[in-house]
Structure formats: structure tokens, C-alpha cells
Specification:
35% helix; five-stranded mixed sheet; 5 strands; single chain; Aminopeptidase
């Protein structure tokens, strides 16, 4: 399996994976051609050295999954860096094969390479199966997250 930075031709499948669940269906617009906003966001991510949009390929170069890592510099923790993992998705036909665990192990290693002192994530409270998965990987529910949507 190969982890690599996403390229523009990967974008339709990435958006399709993000939209392919109960919550994603309500907030994404996967269509062909993709709406321009996805291409603009992809280009912004690509230009930002603190953002990494990653795909995982099998030996046949088929994309199995995707994730995004953000590296956030801040003043606390002695000017520390925290890594945030978002939009972890696995193709529906590839779920249940241990791919998610491999993706998280890779992300943890990548965060350590970038000298992050922690890897954090948020997940919707409705994603009970995902929460159990994250806890199995060692993540702890340590804070109450809050959002203000505009």
C-alpha cells in the first residue's frame, strides 16, 4: 500500500468518498463535473504547506481511502504544533479490511515526523462506531467540542 499526496485527478473519488455516508450526503454535492468550489478548495490545500490531503493506494494503484492532515502552529505547549486529522474515508467496498487502522498508524507517524505533540480529531456524536474505533486506537475524549455554524 502506498500513501501519497492527492493530485487533481484524485479529487472526484475523494469527494465521492466524503459524500458517501449518512452525514456526508446532507452536506456534500458529488456530481460530474465537480462543483468549482471543490477544485478551489483542493488548490488552496495544495498550496498550504501545513495541509496534506492524502490518498492510500493498493498495489494496483487503486485508491482505497483518503484523509486530510492539518498542522496547526500555536503558542501554547511552548510554541507547539498540533496535528488535526479530518475527512478520513475508506471506499465502501474496502471497509472492514483493516485499512482504517493502517491509515491512522500512518497519520500518527506523519504527525510525529512533523514534530506535532498531539494528533486530534473531531467526530459527530452520531458516529458511534467511529468513536469506538478511535478509542480502540488510543484516542481519548478529553474536551467538549463546540461549533458555531455560519
Amino acid at each position: 500500500m502506498i500513501f501519497r499526496k492527492a493530485i487533481l485527478k484524485d479529487l472526484p473519488l475523494i469527494v465521492q468518498m466524503i459524500a458517501d455516508d449518512d452525514l456526508g450526503k446532507t452536506r456534500e454535492r458529488y456530481q460530474d463535473p465537480l462543483p468549482k468550489v471543490y477544485i478551489e478548495a483542493f488548490n488552496n490545500i495544495l498550496e498550504d504547506t501545513n495541509q496534506e490531503l492524502i490518498v492510500l493506494e493498493d498495489d494496483n494503484l487503486e485508491i482505497l481511502g483518503t484523509l486530510q492532515l492539518s498542522f496547526i502552529q500555536y503558542l501554547t505547549y511552548k510554541g507547539g504544533i498540533r496535528a488535526q486529522i479530518e475527512a478520513v474515508r475508506i471506499r465502501k467496498d474496502q471497509r472492514g479490511k483493516g485499512i482504517g487502522e493502517k491509515m491512522f498508524k500512518w497519520a500518527i507517524s506523519r504527525a510525529q515526523q512533523r514534530d506535532a505533540h498531539l494528533l486530534q480529531l473531531t467526530t459527530d456524536k452520531k458516529r458511534l462506531e467511529a468513536i469506538r474505533f478511535y478509542e480502540k486506537l488510543g484516542f481519548k475524549s478529553s474536551h467538549e467540542g463546540m461549533k458555531l455554524h455560519f
